[in-house]
Amino acid sequence: MSSHAPLDGKVAIVTGSGRGLGLAYAQELARQGAAVVINDVDEATAAEAVATIEAEGGRAVAVALPVGPTETAKQLVQTAVDTFGRLDILVTNAGVLRDTVLWKMSDDDFDTVINVHLRGTFTCVREAASWMRENEVAGRIICIGSPTGQRGNFGQTNYAAAKAGIVGMVRTWALELKRAGITANAVIPVAATDMTATVPYFAAAVEADAAGEPMPAFFRHDLGFGTSDDVAGLIAYLASDAAAAVTGQAIGIGGDRLQLWSHPEAVATAYSDGGWSYDDLATGFADAAGALQSVGEKFPPLPEELQRS
After folding, report:
1. Are residues 90 and 126 in contact, defined by beta-carbon separation less than 8 angstroms?
2. What is the pLDDT of residue 167?
3. How many domains does the chain have?
4. pLDDT for the residue numbered 3
5. Residue 144 belongs to a domain with what CATH number?
6. Does 213 fall in a domain?
């Protein structure tokens, strides 16, 4: 790696980085000069990810443990410090899916997703931020959200709750860590993954990606839907000194599109002297609230040439 790379001398942990988006993040951080701690539940997968980074001249080490428990978070940070001498960057990407509608979702379906995504993010950030503060490192916390956490999605009660919670924690951490010079941001990626591979709407894009061909412009531009590599540049940027002033943000990226998500704000305000009784609301809610907010993702119709029979 170039000695002039923007992340030269930095050390990063990327959870859930054995494959997919997480691997793309880890590889790009390494290309930009960072040494990387790879994390995956499968030892062979983690080792293979390390090998891909080392093959390009980068430095990496693997920790094969499930994210969620405090013990895993401690091991990740300790490995970074023991192997590379410090810790500058944490990317919390690890996650699982247990999709089903509310009335069929079991306690285990809910708890598993919350434990990995939400608790895993919390325990890893707590451990990393504590080390950064104690060692006066102006570090970078980058947590992975989802459009589902921003807008909701059918069959994903657990995932939506976890991803919305992650963004809420990031906003809080941006306040708490500001004095230490540590930034905290959420990235909202839109990319071809194992989940989108099963959705007919994205078939043409997924097939093009699998064949090593460019995705149609409709997906990349109109939908902001792209590859894992399209997201990785933002991860590296937020990890760098160039992004020192960016914190507390939810930033969407995919394909050719970059978005800054707004923080929740009141979109309508009305007053009723003495408060709002049932009768006041029954007769006046529609006028007071105005247009109700939409829920879920709404995609435009596929161009005819991209439709699959």
Report:
1. no
2. 98
3. 1
4. 55
5. 3.40.50.720
6. no
Residues of the domain holding 56: 11-191+227-261
Give catalytic residues, as residue numbers: 159
Report yes or no on 292 lying in a domain: no
The answer to whether residue 214 is domain-embedded is no
Chain-wide mean pLDDT for the chain? 95
Please say if the pLDDT value at position 163 is more than 90: yes
Q: Tell me the whole-structure pTM to 2 decimals.
A: 0.95
pLDDT for residue 2: 46
